[in-house]
């Protein structure tokens, strides 16, 4: 995934004139910075925020296929169900699965997923500890975490959000809710 774009690259991706992109930057719609040479650069995250805020189609050159999802749950049927639901909606996403915190840690280091769907109750290390480890790793600073639990309560949700999760969803999972929550995070 490309981290920085020029105004020319943004114009090409959005199929607009470069002056349009410069106007977006000047009016504050698209956040950019200037290099010492006076050239504008736009961070990928800022471009994605702009695309989402103004409901623009995602350019196919930056499609969701760069998204990587790690599903962490000790129950294989739950992992498989989550994967099937999300693959139907986003067939180009890359999926990895882990049954415990140890395997999750290995995959986190190797794959650097953009989203982790994390069961709170895991054998050995629990999901809250995994969440804290993800958030303390500078390489995973942009990784979003959707916690899932069969023991949902407002107190549990508050604990996992405090540990660094982006959101929390109760089991059993509904397909529509899962897609809605994942859509909000990617």
Describe this structure in words.
- By secondary structure, this protein is α/β, with parallel strands linked by helices.
- It folds into 2 domains: 4-57, Multidrug-efflux Transporter Regulator, Chain: A, Domain 2, CATH 1.10.1660.10; 64-185, 3-Layer(aba) Sandwich (Rossmann fold).
- The protein contains 8 helices and 8 strands.
- It has helices spanning 7-14, 18-26, 44-53, 76-89, 101-111, 127-136, 154-162, 175-185, and strands at 4-6, 33-34, 40-43, 68-72, 94-98, 115-119, 144-149, 167-170.
- It has a 5-stranded parallel beta sheet, sandwiched between helices. A 3-stranded antiparallel beta sheet has the order 1-3-2.
- The chain starts with a strand and ends with a helix.
- The relative contact order is 0.11.
Summarize the entry for a quick read.
With 186 residues, this protein is an alpha/beta fold. The chain is built from eight helices and eight strands. It has a five-stranded parallel sheet, with helices on both faces. It has a three-stranded antiparallel sheet with strand order 1-3-2.
């Amino acid at each position: 995934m490309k981290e920085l774009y020029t105004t020319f690259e943004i114009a090409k991706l959005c199929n607009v004139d470069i002056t349009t992109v410069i106007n977006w930057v000047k009016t504050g719609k698209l956040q950019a910075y200037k290099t010492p040479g006076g050239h504008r650069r736009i961070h990928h995250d800022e471009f994605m925020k702009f695309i989402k805020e103004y409901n623009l189609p995602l350019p196919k050159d930056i499609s969701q296929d760069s998204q990587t999802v790690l599903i962490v749950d000790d129950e294989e049927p739950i992992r498989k169900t989550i994967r099937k639901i999300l693959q139907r909606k986003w067939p180009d996403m890359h999926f990895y699965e882990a049954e415990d915190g140890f395997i999750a840690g290995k995959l986190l280091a190797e794959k650097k997923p953009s989203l982790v769907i994390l069961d709170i109750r895991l054998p050995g290390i629990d999901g809250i500890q995994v969440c804290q480890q993800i958030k303390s790793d500078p390489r995973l600073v942009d990784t979003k975490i959707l916690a899932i639990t069969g023991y949902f309560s407002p107190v549990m949700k508050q604990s996992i959000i405090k540990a660094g999760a982006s959101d929390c969803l109760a089991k059993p999972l509904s397909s529509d809710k899962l897609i809605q929550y994942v859509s909000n995070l990617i």
